[in-house]
Design goal:
Length: 406
């Protein structure tokens, strides 16, 4: 893989050339929901919806879809707390069409009033779908509990009142404030037959975006001091989340945390699945996730537990974590975790869309694009003593926060 970075009048463009049968164009903006206020919460995701509706060249949702379908491409978008992203994956000879469609959406979005009003009801159905899924709802409710009443804690998908209250001008103002040259990264990954033409087209299509973001980056609010909380939903089981404060994406200890998280949970043979599901039969689903974000990070354990025995099972999970902080971690699990991480790095960047994701997130949040060899070297440097020490420091009782939907 050959990576070249280009600065085109404030706009960050990265070409990741690789031996591939496809090419992916991906655009990531620091335009996630943490930039919202209480009046416009949900606007980031709603704007993502509206970009697909109406441009200058592709004037209806059908025309946008047909433009991609005609070249047998795949495209989608996503909104997170810190970012919003858009991508098209096609055969290499259609890369110009990918850039054309994405630029028309993001630069020339028209946001017709009738489309806005219609889409509001689509989004409300999406909100109701989430509220009917207690395992998913638990994450959003815990986020509110964990970060308090601010943009870090509010759900990406929030109140029906806010959704119905948006105006066309609200969308335009928000777009012009955050979809700016200095706030975007554009990546073209895969087989690139004419790099100069690709860069020229990107410049021609995106030159008239505003240069600098107009909304200051939000201040990190900190986290709650409370240890437990719950949300009443009248579910048939309790959906538990155990949240342990972790490190941010730029931490020098990131790779030690990666190994520790992998020992705890990576597949059916991992510690948490074996202890909670297979040995004790406490839950059908038990998962864990390691999130390293720009300001902080979390290690999140999730499980669906029986209501009648909930307190008993909570104590069992606490005992497992207590044991892990004192446990002399078997060296075979340590070695297997490192091998798994290295293997996942090696096979995780085989396709153009995977490479585009990797490059754009590294550039936007780490400000450096690491090579696979560098990443593997960082994992290999992690020692057994590093992981044991970290487990004792970060998995203790004083670090854990508990939340559930019941």
């Amino acid at each position: 893989m050959q990576i070249s970075e280009h600065k085109i009048n404030w706009l960050n463009v990265i070409l990741a050339q690789m031996d591939s049968s496809s090419t992916t164009v991906e655009i990531l903006a620091k335009a996630g929901s943490i930039n919202e206020n209480k009046q416009n919460n949900w606007i980031s995701h709603f704007l993502e919806h509206m970009f697909f509706k109406w441009g200058k060249k592709y004037k209806t949702p059908l025309e946008v879809s047909q433009a991609i379908d005609e070249i047998w491409g795949s495209f989608n978008a996503f909104t997170g707390y810190e970012y919003a992203g858009y991508y098209v994956k096609t055969a290499p000879n259609f890369v110009n069409k990918s850039i054309d469609v994405l630029s028309d959406m993001l630069v020339n979005g028209q946001f017709p009033e009738n489309e806005i009003e219609k889409e509001k009801w689509v989004v409300i159905q999406e909100l109701k779908m989430i509220e009917d899924n207690p395992a998913r709802l638990a994450y959003y409710k815990f986020n509110e509990f964990y970060y308090w009443d601010n943009s870090y804690g509010w759900p990406i998908i929030w109140t029906e009142k806010n959704i119905l209250g948006f105006t066309r001008q609200d969308l335009i103002n928000y777009k012009n404030s955050l979809y700016t040259k200095d706030n975007l990264v554009i990546v073209v990954a895969g087989k690139i037959t004419n790099p100069h033409d690709v860069l020229q087209q990107i410049w021609e299509k995106f030159w008239n975006l505003p240069e600098k973001r107009a909304i200051p980056e939000p201040k990190f609010p900190g986290i709650t001091l409370e240890k437990e909380g719950f949300f009443k939903k009248d579910t048939q089981q309790n959906h538990l989340l155990v949240w342990i404060p972790w490190i941010n994406v730029k931490s020098e200890k990131k790779y030690v945390f990666d190994v520790l998280a992998t020992i705890l949970w990576w597949n059916m043979s991992s510690v948490l699945v074996q202890e909670i599901r297979e040995k004790l039969g406490l839950a059908y689903y038990v998962t864990a996730s390691h999130y390293a974000k720009s300001q902080d990070g979390v290690f999140l354990i999730r499980a669906g537990l029986d209501k009648k025995n909930f307190e008993k099972w909570k104590k069992k999970i606490a005992e497992i974590l207590d044991k892990f902080t004192l446990w002399n971690i078997p060296k075979d699990k340590f070695e297997k975790a490192k091998s798994y991480l290295i293997w996942s790095l090696q096979i995780g960047l085989e396709t153009s869309d995977e490479v585009a994701d990797f490059v754009v997130f590294n550039k936007l949040f780490k400000e450096k694009i690491f090579s696979i060899d560098e990443l593997i070297e960082n994992v290999e440097k992690v020692s057994y003593d590093d992981v044991v020490s970290l487990a004792k420091e970060f998995l203790g009782k004083d670090k854990r926060k508990w939340f559930w939907v019941e």
